[in-house]
């Protein structure tokens, strides 16, 4: 079972990346949106904690920049009828702290914004996660060690806002990454304004 990978970033798409290990083997890892958007340039060294999903017809690897994100992912897939793809979609929208807050508030409406999760599924997921709150709390306490650039919630809110304005993810991710690198305390609204200015300057 593969649990940890270190190597060079070979290629990346909007859902996954390929890591070339020192032994010359390339592994494709499925990543969250926030992990994809903070990937360095091709050829850079990268490290991911890995969860392996082995089935008769597939061997899928899910990568996470820190240990705690992987543990939250494992907590999610322990919920009945919640597979790895949907769990990854949830973590693409919400970090450990956000998810803990959703469970505490029983916020069905907010969780239902995740593609593929309707109100009925959201209610079942939140109910199931109540029994697993200790894992979420532990991950929240240690989440400062997770090497994600900028604030994940603000980054994703800014990305969502620009998407609603008609911009594609590929068009604005690099702008937002640079913006949060330069001003990590910026909120989503401020990041959107700066991004729009940069986009207009590059036309």
Provide structural commentary.
The protein has 203 residues and is of the alpha+beta class. The chain has three domains: 4-64, Beta Barrel (OB fold (Dihydrolipoamide Acetyltransferase, E2P)); 67-145, Orthogonal Bundle (DNA polymerase, domain 1); 152-201, Helicase, Ruva Protein, domain 3, CATH 1.10.8. Helix content is 50%, strand content 18%. The chain has helices at 33-37, 67-77, 84-93, 96-105, 108-111, 119-129, 133-142, 152-164, 169-182, 188-201, and strands at residues 4-12, 16-20, 26-30, 45-55, 58-64. A five-stranded antiparallel beta sheet has the order 3-2-1-4-5, with helices on one face. Strand 2 (16-20) and strand 3 (26-30) form a beta hairpin. Helix 2 (67-77) crosses helix 3 (84-93) and helix 9 (169-182) packs across helix 10 (188-201). The longest helix has 14 residues, at 169-182. The chain starts with a strand and ends with a helix. The mean pLDDT is 85.
Order of helices and strands: EEEHEEHHHHHHHHH
- Do you know the CATH topology of the largest domain? DNA polymerase, domain 1
Poorly predicted regions are none
Mean pLDDT comes to: 85
Number of domains: 3
Largest sheet: 5 strands, antiparallel
Q: CATH top level of the largest domain?
A: Mainly Alpha
Structural class: alpha+beta
Report Rg: 17 Å
The first-to-last residue Cα distance is 47 Å
């Amino acid at each position: 079972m593969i649990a940890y990978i270190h190597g060079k970033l070979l290629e990346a798409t909007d859902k996954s990346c390929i890591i070339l290990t020192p032994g010359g083997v390339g592994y494709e890892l499925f990543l969250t949106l926030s992990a994809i958007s903070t990937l360095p340039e091709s050829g850079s060294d990268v490290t991911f904690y890995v969860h392996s999903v082995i089935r008769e017809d597939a061997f899928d690897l899910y990568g996470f920049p820190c240990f705690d994100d992987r543990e939250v992912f494992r907590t999610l897939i322990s919920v009945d009828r919640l597979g790895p793809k949907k769990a990854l979609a949830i973590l693409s929208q919400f970090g450990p702290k956000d998810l803990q807050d959703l469970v505490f508030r029983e916020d069905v409406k907010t969780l239902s914004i995740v593609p593929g999760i309707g109100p009925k599924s959201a209610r079942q997921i939140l109910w199931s996660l109540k029994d697993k709150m200790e894992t979420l709390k532990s991950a929240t306490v240690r989440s400062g060690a997770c090497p994600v650039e900028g604030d994940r919630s603000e980054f994703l809110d800014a990305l969502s806002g620009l998407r609603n304005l008609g911009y594609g993810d590929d068009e604005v991710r690099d702008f937002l990454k640079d913006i949060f690198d330069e001003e990590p305390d910026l909120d989503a609204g401020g990041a959107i304004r700066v991004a729009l200015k940069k986009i207009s300057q590059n036309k």
